[in-house]
Design a protein that fits this description.
The structure is a homotetramer of 366-residue chains.
Chain A (H helix, E strand, L loop, with lengths): L3 E2 L4 E6 L5 E7 L9 H11 L16 E2 L3 E2 L2 E2 L4 E6 L6 H6 L9 H8 L16 H17 L3 E9 L2 E2 L6 H10 L7 H16 L6 E8 L13 H9 L5 E6 L10 H4 L3 E4 L2 E4 L7 E2 L2 E2 L4 E7 L9 E5 L4 E5 L10 H24 L10
Amino acid sequence: MRNTFGQNLTLTLFGESHGPAVGAVLDGLSPGIPVSEEEIASRLARRRPDGAAGTARREADRFQIVSGVFSGRTTGTPLCILIPNEDVSSSDYESWRGLARPGHADYSAFCKYHGFEDYRGGGHFSGRLTAALVAAGGILIPALSARGIRIGSHILRCAGIQDRSFSDPGADFDALEEAPFPVLDPSAAERIRAAVEAAGAAGDSVGGVSETAVTGVPAGIGEPWFDTLEGVLAHALFSIPAVKSVSFGDASSMTDAKGSEWNDLFRAEEGSVVTETNHNGGINGGISNGMPLRFSCIVKPTPSVAIPQKTVDFRDGSEAVLQIRGRHDPSVLPRAIPVLNSVTALVLADFLIGRFGTDYLRFDSI
Amino acid sequence: MRNTFGQNLTLTLFGESHGPAVGAVLDGLSPGIPVSEEEIASRLARRRPDGAAGTARREADRFQIVSGVFSGRTTGTPLCILIPNEDVSSSDYESWRGLARPGHADYSAFCKYHGFEDYRGGGHFSGRLTAALVAAGGILIPALSARGIRIGSHILRCAGIQDRSFSDPGADFDALEEAPFPVLDPSAAERIRAAVEAAGAAGDSVGGVSETAVTGVPAGIGEPWFDTLEGVLAHALFSIPAVKSVSFGDASSMTDAKGSEWNDLFRAEEGSVVTETNHNGGINGGISNGMPLRFSCIVKPTPSVAIPQKTVDFRDGSEAVLQIRGRHDPSVLPRAIPVLNSVTALVLADFLIGRFGTDYLRFDSI
Amino acid sequence: MRNTFGQNLTLTLFGESHGPAVGAVLDGLSPGIPVSEEEIASRLARRRPDGAAGTARREADRFQIVSGVFSGRTTGTPLCILIPNEDVSSSDYESWRGLARPGHADYSAFCKYHGFEDYRGGGHFSGRLTAALVAAGGILIPALSARGIRIGSHILRCAGIQDRSFSDPGADFDALEEAPFPVLDPSAAERIRAAVEAAGAAGDSVGGVSETAVTGVPAGIGEPWFDTLEGVLAHALFSIPAVKSVSFGDASSMTDAKGSEWNDLFRAEEGSVVTETNHNGGINGGISNGMPLRFSCIVKPTPSVAIPQKTVDFRDGSEAVLQIRGRHDPSVLPRAIPVLNSVTALVLADFLIGRFGTDYLRFDSI
Amino acid sequence: MRNTFGQNLTLTLFGESHGPAVGAVLDGLSPGIPVSEEEIASRLARRRPDGAAGTARREADRFQIVSGVFSGRTTGTPLCILIPNEDVSSSDYESWRGLARPGHADYSAFCKYHGFEDYRGGGHFSGRLTAALVAAGGILIPALSARGIRIGSHILRCAGIQDRSFSDPGADFDALEEAPFPVLDPSAAERIRAAVEAAGAAGDSVGGVSETAVTGVPAGIGEPWFDTLEGVLAHALFSIPAVKSVSFGDASSMTDAKGSEWNDLFRAEEGSVVTETNHNGGINGGISNGMPLRFSCIVKPTPSVAIPQKTVDFRDGSEAVLQIRGRHDPSVLPRAIPVLNSVTALVLADFLIGRFGTDYLRFDSI
């Protein structure tokens, strides 16, 4: 069991919130993928807190590509990217040492690592590590795009406010790339922003739901058992901090459906086979059917709330009251959006390189 | 990408619905696990159609352990179990050849395997292969139980009718073992049975939700990233035919929750650390916290419905109307319950053997 | 750690010498590979004892393909092949129970499996399991051959008698396919046969060296670190019972060489790059360079000798004298030759499917 | 196929000779292993060129532990170690671009990576990456030692001069730790040093043989098929640049042996089972038998020789004469010794953590 994802294309995450750096090693990349530092930087910027709805901790997110890129292209050998940590103050965390923050991994990590874990700022569990995932996405997403595969994610629901679903993914992806806040319906965007801010002002946090779509995935990707497209996507998606549910297609809204409603009827269209509806989210029997992939994730409310909470010191079992100081994201959803896109890109790139070989993302082979 | 699950304990599924047999190879089992053929047979029997709510196809489910068991105990070398297919008539399926059954894998499999796939009765995609999973569970579930780990699953909702959630898992597990139909509330059981029958009589099918709980899992199992307990469980669970959503704890019912509601407060109880609530389903940061695991799966309505459906012949793109004859389960939920238990056992055994070594399930070491 | 080989194409071995069957599951095969039962049977026949130089135990080697083949072609889903055991008498072995046969795995297996292992006839360690490897080769070798990749092995040295090395691999492969005994030089063949017989008559056994060559492997296969072509080939080759050394190119005969002698100079020939010599065995930096692969394995003398040997009963530490009755191969080399070819095919098919995608061995794509 | 080694404990190598740094990520380490920067530095120093017998390129081998260590102990989360490159001049290499250095990976890498590879100084193929392996050994070797497992390697033969084999491994290991040159027999040491120097002075290079022994490995480690102890060790050892042969026990010197000579007879000694001889190198049937592991590697002569060599420019097929300037190790053997120890430690730690669980190397559990 490992902190590595993937079979043909693998990504290994490392780092702790208050250590020198976080980072990732990508192995199995096609050689010849163009690597744009601007693209990586721009995606890292989207993961930054955006003021009101985010955290006040300022992250410059400088990064360094240590290996695997030469003359602006991937070499095909392992690519290591480092994102140094800056502006870290460990003092707050010291006073909490041994206190199990509710909803956090402090206690379960203690049971696994016997107290040797770096407890400062969540250590290896910190959402900070998603920066390395986003950086990897800055390489993979454009490479998939050159192959005609586009990925987009938005907040589908937050604090009880609903965004509309993807209707025309291509146009919706374009709109999301320009949007200051990752919500499709501008009026919902305003209300969600306000609700998140209000929760933060009250020292509380809110949960919600994300939606992701992918267009251009060729039919025939996935395995019938175990390495189903749903299973492997979910495997990776549950790594995103706070994700507690993954649903494909219209699963979450159709628990009471009948087969005659849920079945997506096939028909021919311009020489190819399509479905009339897409309740199954582009996947039949674990394998892509050529329709857009569509899935949603339920994200729990950020466990860091300013409201005092009862807890225990797991080192001696004594009771305690914990008040988490500092500012934290009242919802992780806005910052999770670029992470969702990156994780989705990673899973698809792994499947596609496995299916079509290691040159699949090579630029001059496209 | 593979039809194999697991890292330390692996299970490889093989077989086609209308071939000589389906089966599985389990590798990495502890030596010395008692293997009871009665236990395996009893679990296979629970997977059988139970008359009205099931399919009329009669499955004797004889099985043969080909390797890996000696003198009634696992040897620790790969265990192959074969379940011969019987009573298979391929004639129906021949007439559908090339027609994409809506909601089924016929078309996506054609795209992957280029027409070389065995199309009869769903071939390798058939729910028939879950018999091999259930047989594996017949070895793993008692072995985990000897370690104090118990697993139970029930229908939480079907055809719009709700069962109660687990309240006292131990007693609920006992009740489910005796129950003729896997529902906790007897009156809900009657109504669900009736609704499933009615759907079948109308040539239609119904979806629903399962709930699974596991008690006795030690704290500290799982990885922070990628091989999170949620991620690996979901990876495996999405292999169960018709599962389209996996949710942990109270995720599916609490999308609008606040952090102050969702956080599970820690307290000391008789020298150990417990949580007051268990909204997180026994997992924090991807790692078990010692509370019962709890997750639910949304199961789509069986795609095989008797109602005629428009489709295409994917070999030439011509339009067609498909009427699926024969009797099929109007809901896969009742038969999915023992599969859920087996898949859960497989995932946990893999994690535990990785964590504690290959002798973890050895009988005389317990 | 597993009894499975491969990453993209995997083979899992199962079975015990005195159980119902041995077999293998191959997962990740390209769909559409023609499967000839005659070809498999013919390769299994080459693994049979050939009278004087072999064992008297008669093996009919019937086999059954349980899954993964439909209408004479691979489907692309897991292929399970079963080889039932016949003519097994467990009585001899019972009398040896607990006695550590020198050079055999009885004692090390006892330490690993705690006495739960099937001790009859070597159990899971039996050379009998190589029949399943050879059967897999009966599918893979012709498929690679259709891609222009040919594999041949012979006895390079046995009982102190030397065969010549491959000189013209294509012609040598043709000759070996016709040869009654896998030696290139007919006079060496006669002398090796006689020496093996003589060793058997004396109740003793002899070791030796095999040589394998592969032509047609495209340049660029292998990884710089860890999954080097040498490393992965050696990993698999050491599974062949009695192999204790693997050498590439001229390694074993050139330990005292100088760089100026060992370096293979590159030159252009008909538009492609070749080397003048091939001391490196077709591999530079872990990656194929387009020249024939060439490696040799040292095979220890069969540990089963009729001469009485001192040993201990590992159950209680008592001393004992063991006399292994029955007839055993005085050299495993003749029967190891088809196994070497199969294991080599397995490794190369795994690399090539990883490099070029899952359709690489699909017949109609060739 | 990957640049990662291991199943339970994994090591991923990254970096290029002339990039910013080389490094490794270790995942799956037990928490609580003491990490001594002095120990790592001391092992890195042993890998440095030692003047006459080494290269003139000066390597300071500073290093930084980026993650996975907290308060001087491993945390159990991924440990990334970086070794910055210094003193690199790319100008020499530029003039060779496109010229296939004989015996090197330039041409095979070009076939794999299509010219996108970093060609400077061997790029990702450079022996420089072994520094990261040695650094990992600086953590693993002391941790295994605390478990009673000791590893030692020496030059067994070089330039035709033979060292003695291990006779009393414990004392021999102690002697090697103090020795300025890794040879057991002091007079052989002098002659080997002189022969290596002479080869270098002549612009040539020499090959040889290493020998490694490991004491204290518990019996029962390894798998019967594929993940045999021999197979996995060989898999990793072939990553060490220039290794072209791996032999266990007395394989290389006993190709003509008889079973009655090669078999290691078992006997009881102070309540445990031992063998009288150890021709099998501590491994029977792929599994450790409790005797010392013993294996040897043939290392080809360094391919970088100053003597002008004919070659081709693989970009256009034109002929060229290449003269490799700069100073290079006339034998890689002296510097390969600490690498051999590290790779051996990595393989054993992976097996042992798999066998006994993730806490196996935890310091306070010892």
